[in-house]
Amino acid sequence: MARTQIQAAREGTVTDAMERVAERENRDPEFVREQVADGQAVIPANVNHESLDPMIIGREFATKVNANIGNSEETSDLETELEKLHTAVHYGADTVMDLGTGSDLDEIRETHVEHSPVPLGTVPLYEAVKRAGGPEELTKDLLLEVIEKQAEQGVDYMTIHAGILAEHLPLTDGRKTGIVSRGGSIMASWMETHGEQNPLFQVYDEICEIFAEHDVTFSLGDSLRPGCLADACDEAQYAELDTLGELTRRAWEYDVQVMVEGPGHVPMHKVAENVERQQEVCDGAPFYVLGPLVTDVAPGYDHITSAIGAAMAAQAGAAMLCYVTPKEHLGLPDEEDVRDGLAAYRIAAHAGDVGNERPGARDWDDALSEARYEFDWREQFDLALDPDRAREYHDQTLPGDNYKEARFCSMCGVEFCSMRIDQDAREGGEMESLTSDEDGGTDLEASPAAEVNRPPVGTHESGDLPSVSDGERVEQPGDD
């Protein structure tokens, strides 16, 4: 029996997970199998994650969005962490990364695995540093111990910072912001202290063996990603990318699935270059990008600066987007920041799919546009990416139920509503009626679009997530 999804795919077997993915993506199961077999897509599905509803990450499928959660030394308890998981899934996260660095990490992680319907990712280096007492005290044995334990617990994918090498460190000397990845800075500090090569690189084959046993997917960390526009596409970033390409191929030799993490800050005219270069260097392995942020001047609005880059990256071939919240660079996000970050990234992912003309992706847009033109306010709210927000904004100025039948909103009013004027002109015979009036409009039930490109957002919420209290929700963590 095959140990991993990629091994089964290479042997010609369509697994249950592949069947489920094909259903969710409206694709042929055999096409799913071929993509996984070739390493062009991954199905993060640890054999120990029983509550998982399988999903797929690959450039030929709908663009996915990850949300980061987790505790810190200052926050929080198990119930709060479950609340974070619930919030992320409710607002449309396709995967969740637990980047916790505080207390009770094992209990929290095991509870997430028990209840999460979406793949769970981690950065095992964080726990290893916490147990060691500092970066310099890390050992190869401890790293392997933590990685194996998390694999046994059911973690579906792990960020492994094995691509940053000792010979790369001098390449960062001319940067404005140095090494901005947590994992990258930890590995750099260790190498500087011990005068040895990256320990994760040294034990990479052993990690592959652990991953193969439990079907854990690599998320190869971009330790030297640029932290500002000035550092984008520099020699350090691309030197590590070349190493990540080599590590991708080594993992495939062990029948282990791989995706590759991408840069943080990149100017707009170089976003596509980054995606295309990763696809070439890493033989088409799925690209998982943080942003990228296309300007550095907007602290407090980096969910916007990054969503611009994320949409461009998605259209260029990035397979999954790691959300950024308004609190990026400033502090720990709260629930509303998570909501705003996921909304921005669901928009970016969907826009990328529409731009790539994914089958049926635009049907959602068409259906909402038809409801808007017909002044069907309730349908427009139901079709919105965030129905509660759309209804709230409308009702701030026109709250009565009678306004749900009105042929105007408060922006233009009755007299200057362009759509009302257009409708009246067509009904008066001055212009022909619209096509949508004659054919009944867009039928989303018959749309070939993948689940994530049809309403409602957060379809995983009916999974095995437990009920949580209505108390105050606490902060979410930053990136890896």
Task: Characterise this structure.
The chain is an alpha/beta fold. It folds into two domains: 5-356, Radical SAM ThiC family, central domain (TIM Barrel, Alpha-Beta Barrel); 361-447, no CATH class. It is 43% helix and 8% strand. The chain contains 19 helices and ten strands. Strands 3-4-5-6-7-8-9-10 form an eight-stranded parallel barrel, surrounded by six helices. Strands 1-2 form a two-stranded antiparallel ribbon. Helix 11 links the parallel strand 7 (217-220) and strand 8. Helix 7 runs parallel beside helix 10 and helix 15 (363-373) packs antiparallel against helix 16 (377-383). The longest helix has 21 residues, at 335-355. It is globular and about 80 Å long. The model is unreliable at 468-479 (pLDDT under 50). Pathway: Cofactor biosynthesis; thiamine diphosphate biosynthesis. One of its GO terms (biological process) is thiamine diphosphate biosynthetic process. InterPro entries: ThiC, ThiC/Bza_core_dom, ThiC/BzaA/B.
